[in-house]
Request: fold
Amino acid sequence: MNLQLQTGTSNQILRNISKPVKKITKEHQELVQKMIETMELEKGVGLAAPQVGKNIRLIVCKFEPGTEHEWILPMINPELLKCSDTKVYGEEGCLSVPGFWGKVERADHIFVRFQSLEGTFHTMELWDFNARIFLHELDHLNGILFTDLAKDVKEAVAKRKK
Ligand code: CO
Reply:
C-alpha cells in the first residue's frame, strides 16, 4: 500500500520543523521502504518524511536520476556541513505542490552528513542536480517548500483542468 502524500503550501505537517531520529527502529526501515515505493510510483527524485505525514528528520534521495547510474539513498538526520558560494538557478517541482514549477537558486556544491539505516554516520560531497535534490529535501524537514524560494512559480499548463 502506498503512503498518502501531504499536499498544499498551508498544510501544517509540511510547515512543522521535523524532529531528529534518536533511535533507528524497524518502523523507520519499513517507512523508508514505503517512501521509496511512493517516490517511484509518483516519479519523484526525492521524498521527505513530512510529505508522508511524519515530522521526523528522514529523507530519501534519488541521485543521478534518469541516468544509468541512478541510485536511491535513504538519509537519516541529514545535515548541511558546507555550501559553495557559487549558486545556480534550476527548475524544481514537488510532489506536495503538484502541478507547479519554479526556478530556485541553490548552491551547486555541498558537503553533507547523515546516518544510514544502520545508524552509521557518513559524509558526502554532492554537486549540481544531486545537491539540488538534497537541499530541496532538507528544506522539507525545516518546513520550507520550494514555492517559498522560487523566483517565479508557474502552473504547468498540461495539468490545468479548466
Ligand atoms: Co518536495
In short: Residues 94-96, 136, 140 surround cobalt (II) ion (CB under 6 Å). DSSP finds four helices and eight strands in the chain.
